[in-house]
Amino acid sequence: MTENPLLNVGFRVPFDQIKPEHAEAAVDQLLSEAGERLERLAKSGERGFQGFMADLDTLTEQLGTVTTIVHHLDAVVSSPEWTAAKQAILPKTSEFYTNLSLHPGLWAALKAFAATDDAAGLDPVRARHLKLTIDDFKREGADLEGGDKARLLELNTRLARVTSDFGKNVLDATAAYELYVDAGRLKGVPQRVQDATREDAQERGKEGHRLTLHQPITTPLMTYADDRELRQEIWEAQQQVGKQDGRDNRPLVREILELRREKAGLLGFANFADYVLQDRMAGGGETALNFERDLETRTRPAYERENDELEAYHRQHAGADAPALAAWDVTYWAEKQRQAQYDFDEEALRPYFPLDNVLSGLFEITRRVFGASVKEAQAPGWHPEVRYYDIQDENGTHVASFYTDWFPRDTKRAGAWMNGFITGGPRQDGVDPHLGLMCGNMTPPGKDTPALLSIREVETVFHEFGHLLHHALSTVPIKSLSGTSVAWDFVELPSQIMENWVMERDALDLFARHYQTGEALPQDLFDKMVAARNYRAANTSMRQYSFGATDLMLHVEYDPASDADPVAVARDSMARFVPYPLPQDYSMVAAFNHLFSSPVGYGAGYYSYKWAEVLDADAFSRFASEGIFNRDTGRAFVDSVLSRGGSEDPAQLYREFMGRDPDADALLRRSGLLPA
């Protein structure tokens, strides 16, 4: 048998050699090896940090890298074979990690180490590692007895499987949809979208234009298409994702909520939110829910005012006898109102944001502010569009590398994300580099144009790179505390703070150049963009609150043992946050990957986007006052946040950077919902 490339994953992952048939065999072997090391650790008389805690920290390192690679490939080049490979390893890895947390010998050894003089004399980072490890063991059921332990294993294995099924159903339903229309139905839609959809149809030997449910198609359709029936058809097609025969996630929503609630109860928590949030900044479900509801209350007056203004604008221009604004009308009419108010069309920005320029500018900002240099390099990728880069710190040390994969494919899941393949960090004789990735579903190149991004897509690139920097610049010696291994409601601070530079003139001057003429972004266009930035900010905020509040309500207040249908309960919750009536069978939650496509994911944690927005709005105020390219401020952010991972309490790291606790009003001020 040829050598399995997944058993020889070095820093340069051999993506050109890895095939689905390699996955299960590699994971079986790595599980066996990790199991042997686990038994040795549990029985070892060694109770020093290096011989016990350090080995525990790296026990599943190679296994974690390989399982991440398998899950990643199923997300970016999905096929029946890759999905089957992922499904084959899921129950095995889930069982292993559950048994690791429940291993009585390891738990006894851990407690024995905690009682030693060595443990009492640990430095703060290693002491935190010990404390969090003990807390994790307790949270994962180390103190459970017999039948309860067996039941926890069943729950974890089933959760891994059913959440994977949920994500696959969303991916498959999204990929399966296509609609062919003639050019007449695309009146009002930007020419670049018309060109791309026509080319897509031609590549498939069809006439007209091929429309899909990928965001670079649906967003401009819902925003610009004059054909109201087409907008309705696309909106309704989006609502079918997650509830079609053979891909119906609605029963899975209840089952996932039941499994999560039972698991939380088994581990001594009132609900899944309390279980998940115990080690996060919020601390519990009620605190997070109150945070969401407070923001909702403070935003609602502006929200209702915005909706009254849009309704009046609609009546004025569509006529008194026009149908009431429906779900497929609001974005379209809001864009018309914005263009009228600000003489600003976001599409006018695209020619100034070719992807390569955006990346060059992002990397230059990173060099100036954080002292890290990014250069393109070469390594095998999983698709021809994949690119690879090296990062060096200000001393020229290679600290990280990363891959990018920016454009949509029918075999790739929706959204944008960052992940880590390998966690490096300091060692006695130098530094092991980190390895990560950024993926997105951005507007792809046209036949005669480069990839021209929307302002939202530019913000997304900056956002994901903020996560990447958190991974890449970590100097934590403990791998399980490195990089993005932080409280989930803190993890979005490094990503969201990066978005602020996109609205700064001096930053844009580094990269916002017309792809044909090289002309800088005109000042009048920049002024309009800034003026329009907070247009319908309350509606934008309420949309986010709808996701966070509904998530928490399902995981705190909803009882999955009741007769109430969670999909209907979620619909009623979301109806409070949208300015149009929702159909009775509205089932967006059945396609909500963030909440239900992994055993935890953003389940009971979606509020963290807004939580971290408060942090980023406040933290950027220091850059705004000291200079957006101020190297000392950037160094302070690296030293206090980006390099420290989870090695210190996040509230303390924030205080270290800002000299105080967060100002909760900073976000509302930035959004124009409070006076500046």
TrEMBL record:
Residue ranges of domain Oligopeptidase A N-terminal in the record: 28-148
Gene3D superfamilies: Collagenase (Catalytic Domain) (3.40.390.10), Neurolysin, domain 3 (1.10.1370.10)
Domain Peptidase M3A/M3B catalytic: 221-672
GO biological process: proteolysis
Any one GO molecular-function label of the UniProt entry: metalloendopeptidase activity
Entry note: cofactor: Binds 1 zinc ion.
Reaction(s) the record says it catalyses: Hydrolysis of oligopeptides, with broad specificity. Gly or Ala commonly occur as P1 or P1' residues, but more distant residues are also important, as is shown by the fact that Z-Gly-Pro-Gly-|-Gly-Pro-Ala is cleaved, but not Z-(Gly)(5)
UniProt keyword annotations, A-Z: Hydrolase, Metal-binding, Metalloprotease, Protease, Zinc
One Pfam match: Peptidase_M3
GO CC terms of this entry: cytosol
EC nos: 3.4.24.70
Cofactors: Zn(2+)
Family to which this protein belongs: Belongs to the peptidase M3 family.
Protein name (record): oligopeptidase A
Organism encoding this protein: Deinococcus marmoris
Phylogenetic lineage: Bacteria, Thermotogati, Deinococcota, Deinococci, Deinococcales
